[in-house]
Description:
By secondary structure, the chain is mostly helical. Helices cover 88% and strands 0% of the residues.
Amino acid sequence: MPAAFLAAFFAGSALAALYGLCAVALHDVPRITGTVALILTLATLGVAVLH
């Protein structure tokens, strides 16, 4: 169960960071969110392979 809390914490932190980015530099959001989506996809693939 602690892993689920840790995952929820990281997801919440990522959403808070995205909100902060929107508040500061709205024109950079599409590039950064695309990069983050790629990183999360690769991380998910790595977890699935290791599982």
